[in-house]
Design a protein that fits this description.
With 259 residues, this protein is mainly α. The protein has 11 helices and no strands. It has one domain. Helix 5 runs antiparallel to helix 6. The longest helix is centred in the last third of the chain and has 27 residues. The protein is globular and about 70 Å long. This is Conjugal transfer protein TraX.
């Protein structure tokens, strides 16, 4: 009886799934914007209006210092949502080659804004933007999909392919790397037919980075398998453009303080 009620409760929760793919994208974009605003603009005293020597920091600085960790914390929701949407996009796309090509092109387009925003260099080969992580993850799951048609050899090739993807991301030092980024994408793909288990395993992978990030799997659990309204190229362009906008605000605040 207890088991029946438990299963009934799970089915009831699943029947109330209401997050579309578009809504998950907007949530991810908002979380990413808060995270990057905190990291790039920083809202720190060094980037705000000068405070007279010997006086207490003004109210704006106090509030901003409290917002920084909250913004960064909430920002941990963005990456797992993007990974989940990447896997959904791969499953439903009609042309996976064009999908991979778009990711590659926007990885290139985003690299200079990413480097300027986070390392203040025009080109910084020490770290690569998150599009490269998503691209490597996509290539790995494309390979895994092709291996499904094979028999015994897939049990050797599949783990090897996953490890190559993980170590490539680590070697390139992409955002979130291989042991979090690529591994999470692979996990979301391999266990996509078991929503609850997928959410639990994904949450455990994210614990390497943040205790708050696994909460992204709450809206993922309530995903309703509907794409929702599509803003495809808007979401691609948002990444490099918002980095440039935040960088401009940062430089304005620095110039304002210096004057």
């Amino acid at each position: 009886m207890y088991l029946y009620n438990l299963l009934k409760g799970v089915r009831l929760l699943e029947s109330r799934a209401f997050f579309s793919g578009s809504q998950l994208k907007w949530l991810a974009v908002f979380a990413m914007l808060l995270d990057h605003a905190a990291k790039i603009i920083s809202f720190q005293p060094s980037l705000t209006l000068a405070v007279p020597y010997g006086t207490e920091p003004n109210k704006l600085v106090e509030i901003s210092q409290r917002l920084v960790p909250l913004f960064i914390l909430f920002g941990r929701l963005a990456f797992p949502l993007f990974c989940f949407l990447l896997v959904e996009g791969f499953i439903h796309t009609s042309n996976v080659k064009k999908y991979a090509l778009r990711l590659f092109l926007f990885a290139l387009v985003s690299e200079i804004p990413y480097d300027l925003a986070f390392s203040h260099r025009f080109i910084d080969l020490e770290n690569q933007n998150v599009f490269f992580t998503l691209l490597i993850g996509l290539i790995v799951i494309i390979g895994l999909e092709k291996l499904r048609t094979l028999t015994k050899i897939k049990y050797f090739c599949a783990p090897l392919l996953i490890l190559v993807g993980i170590f490539l991301a680590e070697w390139l030092r992409t955002d979130y790397g291989g042991w979090i980024g690529v591994l999470l994408i692979v996990s979301l793909y391999l266990f996509r037919d078991s929503t609850l288990f997928n959410c639990i395993l994904g949450g455990l992978i994210l614990l390497q980075n943040s205790w708050f990030g696994p909460l992204a799997f709450v809206p993922i659990y309530f995903y309703n398998d509907q794409r929702g309204r599509q803003w495809k190229y808007f979401f691609y362009w948002f990444y490099p453009v918002h980095l440039l906008v935040l960088l401009t605000i940062q430089q304005f605040l620095i110039a304002l303080k210096m004057n």
